[in-house]
Every structure is written in structure tokens, then in C-alpha cells.
Fold each of these.
Amino acid sequence: MEPFKNKISPDLVKCLGLHIERHLQGFDRASYEAAILAELDKLELKQRARLIADETGKILPDTLDAKFHVLRSILHPLENEGVDRASNCEGIRGWGMMPLGMVVTDHGLDDFEKSFALLKDMTKRATAEFEVRPFLDKDQERALTIMTPWVKDDSVHVRRLVSEGTRPRLPWGMRLNKLVEDPSPTLPLLEALKDDPEEYVRRSVANHLNDIAKDHPDLVADIATRWLQGADRNRQKLVRHACRSLIKQGHAATLTAFGLKPPEITVSGPNIKTPRVTYGGAVSFGIELRSSGRTAQDLVIDYLVHFMKANGTLAPKVFKWTKVKLEPGETVSLSRDHAIRPITTRVYYGGTQAIGLRINGKDFGFSQFELVMDGT
């Protein structure tokens, strides 16, 4: 897969130079492009965007109105297209919005109305989810007052921006500490968007709620309980995705919202089939469940891999597995392979690891296996 940083490419820099030249008298296109291209290749994604934003800010006119006029003039005429649509001879869009949005944030924090109007136009050509956040941090009430009517906007990108831009813990974005502490100001926005006709928007609502769940799990469980009443398939999917972390954690109120009761079962396992696993292979295990309840029960089955840390202790990581409906007295056998291969988010250490189960939030079993690293 091509690195994301390559989205902010020399071709994009040259395309920006082309369009700025068309709308800014006296612009030295060659010097502008040379200043950026001399440094671009050695930088990562956000650093590349930052470099372009800084160089663009230097060459724009002095007044905010004139700056924003140039930025708006170079936008691609087509709106509401995907983030990955490349800029071209018609205008800037897609990943080109990242550095241009930074310019708005750099120069427009003292004029919310003009800045939000431009960011609204920009988000239709990709997203301005990172750029609205400094405004929310500076004056949350004022920013939300501007954004609230956007829940009814015709543009799917604008509606999504309402939810995504206000997420308390947006990945890659600055943390909105006021909303981490008290998420109540954004709850009416999520309420208005929960049945949006576009999954792109509903997915954002779910991720926003998942952010809130990290600090206010009971609040999200209450919302899930309410939203699931009479919910259609789309809203059910939204709520499941919103509560994914709480379900993995076995949060009792959340499990109750989904009708999941404490399991009445006997468990055999997990039974490790590969007691010695070489790095790059997979640990195989099986379980057997037998219902001891008097009525049918729905079971959400996850498993935990207790990975060895550098200090020799074990740290569990929860993985989704499956769902089963178990009738009274019924027995079911399940098996699973979990690959242990290189990933960017984990460093593996050889030695004793373990597998456990989490069923409807309750933990069962602890079976060990040995992980053998290369050359050991």
C-alpha cells in the first residue's frame, strides 16, 4: 500500500502553483514550488502539509478577505466527491485541502464567520475535520452555534463534518479537552444525525460515540438503550459500532442494552492446539460451550490474547470472534486461528503468552502457549 504521505506529492505542489498563478498577480511560481520541493521528499504526511501551508501563507495577500478570495478561487468546481479524488487543471480538492485548511486556521482564528464559510466550502472537496478543531478549542460555544444548522445541509460532507470535526478524541487531530470532560454540547448534533441517509455520516456518529465511551461509558450505554428502541437496521448497525469498545470491555449496562445477559454456560477451553508457535505463524485453539440455562441465550464471544511485554508481564488484547444462540442443554464447539505476524502497532516478545475468552462480558479460561521469535 502506498504511504499516505505520497498523497501530498510534487504533482500536488505544481498543481497548487498553477492555480495560485492564475489568481494572484505578481506570484513567483518557480520560487514557491522550489522552496517546497527542496524539502518535501524528506518529510512525513502532516509535515508536508505544514510546509505547503507555511509557504502558501507567505505568498498570499495581507488582508484576510484577499487571502480567502485566492483560496476559494483555486478550489475545484466539483463538490461532494471523495477524499482521494486528485487535484487537476480544474482546481484543488482531495488531499490538497489539508494544507489549504491549515492556512485558514493559521490566519482566520479571529474571524469565525469568514473562516467557517471557507472551511464549509473546503470540506465539500475532502474534509475540514482537523481545521475546525482550533476554533472549537478557542470558543466552543461560538463554533457550535455556527455548525449546528449544518446538520440539515444538503452536502453529505458538511453533515459529516458536524460529527467528525467535534469528536473529542479524533485520531490525528488535536484533542478537544472541554468535550472530553463534558460531551453534552455535541449530543444534540449526534441525535440529529443518527438516522442520516448516508452511512458516511452515520459511521462518523458511531465513532464520535465511541470516543465519548472512553470517558463516559455509562452515558453511551444510556444512549444506546434509547436509540435501540424501535431502531431500524441502519441505526442498529450504528449503535453496535459505537459500542464496540464497551462490548469488548464487558461493560454491563451496554451488554444489557443489547439484550445480552450474564451467560449460563459451562466452558471447556480454550484448548491450545499449537502449544509452540513460531513468529509469523498462528496460534490455534478451540472451545466447547454447553448451555446450563433454562431458556435460549444469545452469546457474544470474544477472545483475549495475553501478549508478553518487554518487562515480562502479560497484557491482554481483546479480539472479536463470533455470536451464537444457544438453546437449553445445547453444546457447541468452535475453533480459531490467530495469526502472529508483523504489524505496525505491536512489538512481539518471545516467551509464554496466553489465550482467554470473554463471553457476554464475563472472562473464562487462561491457556498458555510459547511464542518463538526468529533465531531463538
Note: Strands lie at 265-272, 276-278, 282-291, 297-308, 314-326, 331-339, 351-359, 362-372.
Amino acid sequence: MTLQWTAVALFLYAEILINIFLCFPCISAQRWRLVFGWRIWSWLSPYWNKFFFAMIMALIVLFVDAVREVQKYSGPEPMQEATVNPNLYDHVHMKLFRAQRNLYICGFSLFLWLIMRRVVTLLTQVAVALETSSGLQIQMEKALKTAEKQQEENQVLRNALVEEEKYQSAAQQLVKLDGEKLQDQLKAAEAAVKKSQAEVEAMRSQTKGLAQEYDRLLKEHHQLQKLHCVENKKDE
């Protein structure tokens, strides 16, 4: 295996290991986001896209070369030469096997390179979505607590309003009872006033009768005195 294909094979093994680590279920997306947030990645970020596309271009070139090698050794001419010269048969098949091996190595390297970038992007998006969902859950819990608190306050206000209505109804009943009592007292007072007025009228009429009787008696007294005086004069 030449140096370039050895490097591609090592690169493929590294990609396999990295993808296996990225797919570990015991490592959460938040931890991977913390790893991706290291300062070293921010330093390498200006060169990352250039390196990514450069690797794609290199792998595509090697893939095309591997395809060309496979077509070269799987064509009819090498097979005819291998059948004509038996010593070349093993050599042609060895070359074809190496070309196919290089094709698979390069193809899988290119495929895993794209998959690894996609997995990193998805892990970052999942971590952001989880953080957003946790923030939304916290906000929802706060909103629920606020709603429950407001509901409790509304219940307290409703109870206070019910109590106030009961108090107002009781006060209205008391006022009504007091009004009825006052009306009864007013009627009793009016009856007492009428009774006292009747008594005063009776006393006035009785006083008037007494005055008339007194005047009559006084007149009789004067008449008796006059008669007594006349009799006394006669006796003298």
C-alpha cells in the first residue's frame, strides 16, 4: 500500500473511531456541545471550512483515481493478457483487488467525512433544542406557578366578595329590621301622641266644664250672699 492510501486508511480508521465516540449513548448532546465550545475550536474555526472542503476535494480526486484503476484492471484487455500469459493472471487480480480496496477505502472515507460533519451539526442542534426546551419548560413552570398564584388570589378575592356580599345582605337585613322597628316605634309614638292629644282634649273639656260649674256655683254663692244680706236687714 502506497503512502497516500495508507494515509487514507488511517484517516478512515480515525473517522470510524470519531463517529463511534459521537454515537455513544452515554455522552449527551450537552456534553458534546461543551466539548465543541472549547477555545481551541474557536481558534481553528476560520480554517475548518477550508480544511473540510480541501479534504472533500482530495478524497474525490482519490476516489476518481480508484475508479479509474478499477476500470483499468477490470477491462477486457488486461483479462485477455492475463489469459494469454498465466503469470500475469495473479498480478492483474492483485492490482484489481488493490484498486477495489482503495475505492472502498476512499468511498467510505468520503462518506464518513460527510456523516461526521452532519452528526456534529445534529448534536449541536439537539443540544440547543434541549437547552431551549429546558428554558421553555422553566418558563412554563413559572407561568404555571404564576397562574396558580393568580388563581389562588382570585379565589381569595371571590371568597372576600362572597363574605362582603353576605355582610352587606346581613347589614341590609339589620337595616331593614331597624327600619321596621323604627316604623313600629313611630306608629307607637303616633298612637301615644294621639292618646295624649285625646287626653288633653278630655282634660280641656273637663276643665271647661269645671270652669262653667265654678262660675255657676260662684253665681249661686253671690245670690245666697245677697239673700243673706237682705234677711239680715229685715231682722234689724
Note: The CA atoms of residues 19 and 116 lie 6 Å apart.
